[in-house]
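Researcher: We're teaching a course module on how sequence relates to structure. For the next exercise, students receive a sequence and then see the predicted structure as C-alpha cells, so they can try to spot secondary structure elements on their own. Here is the exercise chain.
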Amino acid sequence: MRHLKKNDSALAKIINHLGPYEFRLDDNHYEALVGSIIFQQLAGAAARAILNRFKQIYDGRIPRPRQYLDTEEKHLRASGLSPQKIRYIRDLSERVENGVLDLKKLSHLPSDEVVKELDDVKGIGRWTAEMFLIFVLGRTDVLPVDDLGLRKAAQKIYRLRKLPSREKFQQLSKNWHPYCSIATLYLWRSQEKPQDPVKW
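Model: And here is the predicted structure for the students to work with:
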C-alpha cells in the first residue's frame, strides 16, 4: 500500500478512503477452478444459485475430479450448468485425474507458465488464469489488462474521456509494479457502491 500510494496519487486517494484490504486465499486449486468456470459470464446471484445446486449433488461440497467424471450429465444439467460448462469442467477433471495437469505444481511455477498451463484447459482462458494467480496463489504482480471492470475503474479515477486501451492501461500501471494485483483489488473495490462514495 505504501508503494502504491507513493507512486500513484490517484490510487492513493482510493487506498486512503477504503483502508486495508484483506482476503483469504482459496487453498483448494481444483475447487477454485471449478467455481471460476461456473461463474463465467453470469451475474453473481445467478452463478451462486447454480453453484449451490451443483454442490447439492455432492452433499453440499465441490466434488473431487473422479466424482465429477462419474456423475450422469442429466444431474449436472438439472443444477443449471450449460452443456458447454459441463464439458469444460470435464476437461479440467480429466486432466487432473490423469496427471496431465498437476495443480500442486502450479504454486512453484512463474506466473506466465501458470497462465500457459491453465490456458490449455477448455474454458479456462487468460482472465480465469489471472484470477487464479491472484486469489488462489496470492501472486502480487498480476495485471488483468483485459478485465472490463478494471478498465472502467481506471477511466473514472484517471478522468479519461474513453475506456483506456490495453496499451494505455499498461502505461497507467507502470508505477504499480511489483504490486499490480493489490492495485487491481483497489480499483475493483472503487467500482462498488459504498455508502460514502470516493470523491475523485
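Model: If you want an answer key for the exercise: The chain has two domains: 2-23+144-190, 29-135. Residues 29-135 form a domain with the Endonuclease III; domain 1 fold (CATH 1.10.340.30).
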